[in-house]
Design goal:
alpha+beta; three-stranded mixed sheet; about 20% strand; globular
Amino acid sequence: NSFLRRLGGSVPLRVITQYYEIYESRRFYIPDYRAMSVATWRDNTDPLPKPHPKDANIRAEAERAAARFNFLIPGVDNLIIVAIPHGVPMRWAACSYHGRTGRITYTNLPYQPDFGIGCGAYSVHHSRKGVLDGVTETVIHEVAESMSDPYISAWYDVRGFEIADKCQQYAASERFNGQAYAVQPLWSNETGTCRY
């Protein structure tokens, strides 16, 4: 939550402002969201099914959260991160993924420390703090892709990689309002490189 509250308007996330969509022959660039709203909710009334929740369960949870928060903005400006609790096994190869359901985009964010170094733990910080490296790296990855490719039909390269996929093998410690977090860079079309 601390990372998300500092993410809006951060230098790493500003890379996405070069991307746009074309509507009625006009370009609409992704804005620099300096004031991202972050709200949390713990849904204890309708837990994810065990042993393995399916994508349909994640989408339904995202819809419940959107109703709970009473989102009034139509479209893809509403991103829900469904944070899966510790110990719930997932049945797919990715550390996380994003998608769209109806009027919102969502991210399925399994409990990253359960995946260990395979999903970024200790990639930057080699102390106890490093167990959370994969969390912040994965969050910036999915938030950036949700913003630049909300319908899974916008920006991707010839191999099908989105702007964070192209750069996920790199990580560094970046400061956000005085706090250091592990983040990955994002692909910049302007420079043809991965940028923080």
